[in-house]
Amino acid sequence: MRRRMKGDANTEELAAMLSRVHASNPMPVDELLNPPEEIVLKEHPTDEDFCRVDTNSENTTRSELSSVDATG
After folding, report:
1. Contacts of range 6-12, beta carbons closer than 8 Å, 24 or more positions apart
2. pLDDT tens, position by position, for the chain (72 residues)?
């Protein structure tokens, strides 16, 4: 979701400062701060995305801890 910054005091101040540069082809401040190529829309994460457990690495860690306890 793209957040629009129009009307924001900081954005307006930045736009005023950049206008003093007198660039031949100025970029809008919104585009400068939020480049279109960086805007990626993704699906909302599910509970499974947050709670995913890598059971193989968990079992490996338990095995390693057990062998350390046994030896020492």
Report:
1. 6/30
2. 345 445 588 889 999 998 999 888 888 988 888 888 887 777 787 777 777 666 556 666 667 767 766 665
Residue type, 10: N
2 secondary structure, DSSP code: P
Tokens found for residue 69:
């306890």
- The 8 Å CB, 24+ separation contacts for 32-36 are 33/5, 34/2, 34/3, 34/5
What is the helix (H) or strand (E) element at residue 71, kind and residue range?
helix 55-71
Render 19-44 in DSSP notation, one character per residue. Answer: HTT--SSPPPHHHHHS-GGG----PP
